[in-house]
Amino acid sequence: MNAHNHHGHHVPAPPSEATAVEQPSNDPRTVRIALEARETNWEVAPGVTIAGFGYNGQVPGPTIELKQGVPVEIQFTNRLSEPTLIHWHGLRIPASMDGTQSTQRPVEPGQTFTYRFTPPDAGTFWYHPHANETEQLEKGLYGAFIVRGADEPIVDREQILVLDDVNADKQGRLAKFGGFRERHDGREGDIRLINGKAEPQLTIAAGQIERWRIINASSARYVRFSLGGVPFRIIGTDGGLIEAPVDAAEVLLPAADRVEILVGPFAEGQTLTIDSLRYSRSTMKRRGKERFGTLAVGPAKPSRAAIPTRLRTIEPLISADATPNRTVNFSLGVSLRRGLDFLINGETHHQDKPVKVGELQVWDVVNRSLMDHPFHLHGFFFQVLSINGKAPQFRSWEDVINLPPRSTVRIAWMPEDRPGSWMYHCHILEHHEAGMMGHFDVVR
Ligand SMILES: [Cu+2]
Question: Which residue of 51, 284, 333, 435 has the fewest C-beta atoms within 10 A of its own C-beta?
């Protein structure tokens, strides 16, 4: 392995090149995309330019928009001076295409790797590196990945909001990486971004209803999303649409989480703030309400929006009182050498037991620590059965769920026939890097 592998002694051996190659698609509909990671001057505000990294020279990277069930080939070239690879966050694709160091060799500088898969689900996903993540994501390597289904609600317009923050000074110089507070809290910054720009003004036409696909691409920040306190409707989460719209005035997005909402209609001339409300996740540095941007309501346009009262059906995998067959413990330990250890079942880079294809998994994911952690499962959606014994507000498919301090979150998921090496981890990138992750195999 290489200098940028932080995964310690429990990393499974990388597969041979042969197993990491999927056959080229013969499907004439196949979409071909070229992506390149390279050093990029990232202007977050007028005169504030960060020496960052971008996919195809932009932050966020190009939005990948595909149709459900249509194959894609993404030819990825690494023009950085360090190894990298791309994880397709939330996509239920073969293990060999998951884009981690457990499933493929990192793409070395100058090398190309072609990802081939067929997105099976409609929804709002994203892509980002799974090597030296703490630096590569902070520098701008991330992008939206949208998959459209055949039968989507009709809205007047769609906007994608990729939220992020960056820790840089007024000249755009990135703060030094590391240090005890950053290791504890995760890296947060005071430059708050929507689609790579600091506190932009978005627009909407009066009288119209828009679908917003919101992605939290921050390293660590939790966004308690609010649109000036006005109500909106939640229609989707990580794994696509939920069963019916849910009225809300705020929604919490831990790092890596996604939500889809309907906003509007509004009256012309209104200006709404796009904020993150105060949220304490027991960090050393506390944050109050902070602005990500504004929304200006322009002249009225007619609306053709048609939102069904029923969006889709999500069958429950199992009843909420199902008996768990596995417990995954998140905890913090004190280490003489490193100060703090971020642990799964008492160890860093935990090697967990395999799961069998077709055997329903009911896991108690337990947070024994006093701070929040966003739990992320690669490659499979889960349903949340309960949080501290209480059912969630609505049924959904998720790949990220917040673990509040001293909590038990019970999830259920089905290992479909996609054997190989998979993982789960805290999506606060600094905790992940510090070892808060588990590896397991899906076996036939
Ligand atoms: Cu964490």
Answer: 284
